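Page 47, continued from p. 46.
Same chain as before, 303 aa.
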Amino acid sequence: MANDIIKVEGLCKEIKGKKIVKNVSFSVKEGSITGLLGPNGSGKTTIIRLLSGVIEPSSGDITVMGQNPLTNGEEIRKNSGIVTETTSLYEEMTAWENLMFFSKIYGVRDSKRSEELLKAFGMWEHKDSTISTFSTGMKKRVSLAKALLQKPRILFLDEPTNGLDPEGIHLVLGYLKALCEKEGVTVIICSHVLQQLEGICDTYLFIKHGVLMEGGSMEEIEKRHLRNISVDIETGLTVEETVFAGYPYQTIRKNTLRFELKSKEDISPLLAALLERTWVHGCTLKNNTLEDYYFLIGGEINE
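Result:
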């Protein structure tokens, strides 16, 4: 089992009398992808800045790669790649010139690394164009390449898909997943767009108003919070009742019924009963997405 590369206990941060992060505790396994999820202003970016040693905590303990960001922040940043919402690139320089410049700063002598990364993010054909001519999404891709130049152990990404089109989002997230699997890089992704990270992360941390509401794998979160299941089934069933085989349902549209079940174990018997009566062309769970869980848990916290 992988070791914890990040440990956080009782983390608090107060800025100008306002509590931004409130008693947050979690750990991150080395080589995993963790999604730090919540709306804008929930404290996600502040947590990233605390982990990388850019700002000091008001209280609590942080260990990153076995070191304290408060006293060893520079060492942590040497072994980390960081992408913020601002690109931190030189606008008057080309993509290639930017990567060559930062390669020298990071002590990366082989230009093949820059070539490899620009190709991976679909920017090789634009390498000789200046950053000022790029769209927001293109700048974000070059920023990601820059963050990976020195082969960091940890990658901190703050809203990495902002400005990317659907193709770019798919490319970037797919590359990050492969990066973890092949090189064992640990990735922390802050995002307010929950559906983009579904299926990408090993662990999800739900943040709201600076409070860690929930944390765990998708399976763990589902086990703790999914109490009833809504299932849309495309079927030829035509009956006037509102219950079939003991399961209540409603008609959503022609040939589509929504059944309310107590657990996933009810799906197979329901489908079997339907197939004895008529055809079934599709079955879709409706209330088990990341966004569903976030609002469900958020509602529970606020009640």
